[in-house]
């Protein structure tokens, strides 16, 4: 006779379910253990800072003893000098300048004519009698002769400075000088590409001879004259 087993009492029937439930409970406990956090109560009162609402510093009241004021200056009253009224004062007589029947007419020859002072310096283009270069006294066109003689003088005294040749300097130097009332040359002014060339142009102009001064209305005047000097390397 075989033993009969009750199917409701067999443990093997729900073993898988029990295993899953146990595993789930263990995993839940492990997760809770990892995520559990402990907090310790600490005191956060490190100190207190008291800030005054009004930070303005009140200066202490001090009493300074001032020196006494200086004594007032006593001004001496001015001395009034009484001048006796015995000086004879000459009265100025104002004569009338209006013409009447008693006015004497002055002769024309007795009237002195004041000389009109003209300018002391006349440009070369406007001067009536241009300065005369030595050797141009007998020429009809003295201005043209003056310029021709100036060119001859420059060619005769021209020397190309050796430093300028070594440095390759060339160009035009504009020269302006004044022929004074006594015929001498002065006030030489130059403007060129280099000082070496300007010095050479000044040396050439300084060798000009004394000239007959220019005249305006028969009176000797200063006459400025301008001429260019060209330096060109061969």
From TrEMBL:
Residues 145-234 form the TonB C-terminal domain. One of its GO terms (molecular function) is energy transducer activity. It comes from the Bacteria. Pfam families: TonB_C (PF03544). InterPro entries: TonB, TonB-dependent_transducer, TonB/TolA_C, TonB_C. It is a single-pass membrane protein. The chain crosses the membrane at residues 16-34. PROSITE patterns: TONB_CTD (PS52015). One of its GO terms (biological process) is siderophore transport. It is found in: Cell inner membrane. Keywords: Cell inner membrane, Cell membrane, Membrane, Protein transport, Transmembrane, Transmembrane helix, Transport. One of its GO terms (cellular component) is plasma membrane protein complex. Belongs to the TonB family. This is Energy transducer TonB.
């Amino acid at each position: 006779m075989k033993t009969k087993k009750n199917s409701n009492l067999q443990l093997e029937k729900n073993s898988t379910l029990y295993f899953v439930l146990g595993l789930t409970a263990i995993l839940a406990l492990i997760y809770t253990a990892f995520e559990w956090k402990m907090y310790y109560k600490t005191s956060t009162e490190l100190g207190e800072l008291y800030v005054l609402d009004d930070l303005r510093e009140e200066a202490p009241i001090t009493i300074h003893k001032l020196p006494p004021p200086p004594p007032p200056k006593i001004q001496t009253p001015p001395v009034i000098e009484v001048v006796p009224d015995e000086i004879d004062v000459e009265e100025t007589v104002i004569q009338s300048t209006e013409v009447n029947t008693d006015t004497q007419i002055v002769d024309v020859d007795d009237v002195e004519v004041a000389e009109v002072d003209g300018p002391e310096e006349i440009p070369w283009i406007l001067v009536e009698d241009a300065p005369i270069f030595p050797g141009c006294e007998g020429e009809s066109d003295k201005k043209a002769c003056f310029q021709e003689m100036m060119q001859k003088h420059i060619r005769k005294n021209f020397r190309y400075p050796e430093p300028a040749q070594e440095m390759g300097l060339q160009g035009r130097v504009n020269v302006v000088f004044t022929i004074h009332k006594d015929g001498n040359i002065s006030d030489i002014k130059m403007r060129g590409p280099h000082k070496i060339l300007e010095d050479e142009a000044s040396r050439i102009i300084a060798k000009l001879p004394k000239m007959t001064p220019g005249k305006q209305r028969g009176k000797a005047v200063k006459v400025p004259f301008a001429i260019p000097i060209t330096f060109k390397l061969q």
